[in-house]
Structure formats: C-alpha cells, structure tokens
Amino acid sequence: MPTDTSSGRVRVHCFSLSIDGFGAGPDQTLEQPLGVGGGTLHEWFFPTRTFRQMTGEDGGSTGVDDAFAVRGFEGVGAWILGRNMFGPIRGDWPDGAWKGWWGDTPPYHCPVFVLTHHARAPLVMEGGTTFHFVTDGIHSALRQAREAAAGKDVRIGGGVATVQQYLRERLIDELHLAIAPTLLGSGERLFAGLDPVQLGYHCVEHVTTPSALHVVLRRGE
Amino acid sequence: MPTDTSSGRVRVHCFSLSIDGFGAGPDQTLEQPLGVGGGTLHEWFFPTRTFRQMTGEDGGSTGVDDAFAVRGFEGVGAWILGRNMFGPIRGDWPDGAWKGWWGDTPPYHCPVFVLTHHARAPLVMEGGTTFHFVTDGIHSALRQAREAAAGKDVRIGGGVATVQQYLRERLIDELHLAIAPTLLGSGERLFAGLDPVQLGYHCVEHVTTPSALHVVLRRGE
C-alpha cells in the first residue's frame, strides 16, 4: 500500500513584507541574498533563539517572534525553495561548488526540493538535509515533496516568485507573514497581480510584537 | 505684510492599509463609504476615544491607538479631501443637499478644501468647519489650505488617489499609516506605481498595538 501523502498541509512561514508590500529587495547578489535593503525585513527574526541556533549561536529571544519562527519548523517533512533562495547563480550550474547559503549543515534537516531549469545531482548535506533539483515545474516539486514528507507538512520557503506561483494555483493552505516597519521602495511585491481574497484566504490570526505585525492567512475558512 | 504660510507642514494621519496594501475597498457607496470591506481597515480606530467623540459618544480607549488619532488633529489648521472622501456623488452637484458624511457638525473645525471638477459655493457647517470646493487642482488646493492654516499644518485626509497625487509631487512631509491585520483583495493600493524610497521617505517611528502596526514615514531624513 502506498504511503498516504495527501494529509500534509502546504505552509509558508516567516515570510516578511515591507510596509510597501515587498518580500525582497531588488538586485540579489552573493553579498545581499535578500536583495538591496532586504535584510531590514527580517529584523524581527534575527534576534530570535531560532535564528541564532541556525547560525550556531547561543541565546536569543524566546517571545512571540521566536514562537512564530519555531512554528515554521514544527511538523515540516520537506521544503520547496526557488532557485534564487538556494543561491545567486543563474543559468547552468558551473560546477558543484555552490551548496546553498547555509554552510555544511543547512537548517532544514529534511529533503529540500529546489526549483530550477538546470538539472543537477542531489546534494547530500550534513544534518539530514538533501537538496534535490527539480526541473519539471512546481507541481512535480510539490508531488515529490509531499511524498518525501510522508504525511508531514511541506513548507515553501520562498522566494517571492515561488510563493506567488503556488498561491496562484491555490496550493498553499497557510501563510504566516510578518509585516516589518520598513520601506523597500522596489523589489518583488508578494501580492502584485494577486487577489488573496479571491484565492480564498482569510486572516485567521494576528499578533503584534515590538518588531512586527504577524498575521496568519488560511484558505477556505 | 502677508502672513507667512510656508512654515506649516503637510501631513497624512490615520491612513489605514490592509496587509495586501489597499487603503480602501472597491465600490464605494453611500452605505459603504470606505468601499466593500473597507471598514475592517479601521477597526483599530473605532474604539478610540477620539473616534467616539467624533460620533458623539462617550468613553473609548485612550492608549496608543488613540494617541495616534489625537496627533492627527493637533496643530492642523486646514484639511484637504478628495471628492470621494467628501461623498459618494460623482459628476455635477445635483443640489446643495449633500453636506458630507459627518452630519451638521463635521469633526474638522477648520477650513476644509474639497478637490472636485464641479464648482460649488462654500458650505459653512456648525463647529467651525467650512467646506470649500476647489476646481483648479491639487496645487491650488494646497496653496489655499496653507493660507487658511496661517502657519499651522495642513492635513490631507484622503482618499487613496488624493494622497497618491500629493505623494508624487513630493508635497507630503509626514504620513502616519496603520497597517491593519485584514485582507481586502482589491480596491485602491496606496503604493501602486509609487516608490516611497525614491520619493525620499523613511520610516522614522513604529509602534505596534494589539490592533495595528503604526508607522510614521517622513521625507528627507
């Protein structure tokens, strides 16, 4: 009997937006993975214990901001990332040197499916993360991620374009957004050309902290 | 010697935006002055003492939300409103019957300049408010409002299209926005086609309350 892969939900977490609606700044580079000014989106996240653990540091805050960060990892059995969230390289992979932004031990600890137009062999990292490169589209990536998650949830990490594609196909069950008190002016707007109400989303939860307005959007309630 | 009218600032206050960036819902009518769903934008404002006083009621909250509401009236000597913020009537004024959404005693208590393409005689209301109808554009309205304010500040009330026009001309010194935990899906987006960073704005203040993320944007700092 095949594993039941239909029960897991598809979730987005810790997705920060600026006041003017951008989920990333323009001009991503190796030095600025979140685009110009994009780092200011995540100022609520950097001091959390969860983020500090991801970067090998002790301490960090354990309040509401951290609770949202923690939720983003709970019950997740596989991830999907857009190519740009995996790295700054465009086009063909020049060699196997680029292994993501996160060092030898990425914070995923499970299978991660990277959307790309350029085939590449799976990349087994330390700590349980394996990067799989999917060249046949978002539906295939989700099918593979669901299967790998084996009943647990699939988290779509980002970036903006990837989340938009899954939103348009009504494939995301829940999104946690963090509205940050910053202006980006340009970059990638999450809701550009998208009507979240028409797509079936409602705001089912909101909490403010000194650093952000956290909202949870859910489909079909 | 003419009155010095250059010292007053031009301010926007209590301008609510949804998570998806809308400052008003679609399809404004007499019954829904803020457009369909637009009322949910202002849920932070309705319980405040300031709002309750505007509607002739006692009580109301006196915390941070109310403090922002209070600031919006302090030091203001004249207002500018778009036609739609004054009323739902489009085209020619059929008669003098429509006197704004606010009853006999509007909450302005000073001269208010209404942008319109259709001339109408000034409308003297109770409590110090006079509505002046300006048919020769936003610059003329601002000139008249500055003169009427006599050194105090000019507040641009809205709606979205009016604020956008003044933003594009770099005529607004300060904006207080309240990001509300709600989705509108469609309507009028404040930052559509506008780059607030390029226009010189920075976020100089932010405070969260259980109901909203309040931010203050200022030009040229």
List strands and helices in order, with pairings:
The structure is a homodimer of 221-residue chains.
Chain A (H helix, E strand, L loop, with lengths): L9 E8 L4 E3 L24 H6 L9 H8 L4 E6 L1 H4 L24 E5 L7 E2 L5 E5 L3 H12 L3 E6 L1 H9 L5 E6 L8 E2 L11 E8 L4 E7 L2
Parallel strand pairs in A: 1-7, 1-8, 3-4, 3-7, 4-6
Antiparallel strand pairs in A: 2-9, 5-6, 8-11, 10-11
**Envelope shape of chain A:** globular
Structural class of chain A: alpha/beta
Mean pLDDT of chain A: 92
Instruction: For the record, give the distance between the C-alpha atoms at the N and C termini of chain A, rounded to a whole number.
Output: 32 Å
Which keywords apply here?
homodimer; 221 residues; alpha/beta; two-stranded antiparallel sheet; 5 helices; 18% helix; 26% strand
Description:
The structure is a homodimer of 221-residue chains. Helices cover 18% and strands 26% of the residues of chain A. Chain A contains 5 helices and 11 strands. In chain A, the strands form 2 sheets. Chain A has a 9-stranded mixed sheet with strand order 5-6-4-3-7-1-8-11-10, with helices on both faces. In chain A, strands 2-9 form a two-stranded antiparallel ribbon. Chain A is globular. Chain A binds chain B through residues 17, 19-21, 37, 177, 179, 181-186, 189, 191, 194-198, 201-203, 206, 208-210, 212-213, 215, 217, and chain B through 17, 19-21, 37, 177, 179, 181-186, 189, 191, 195-198, 201-203, 206, 208-213, 215, 217.
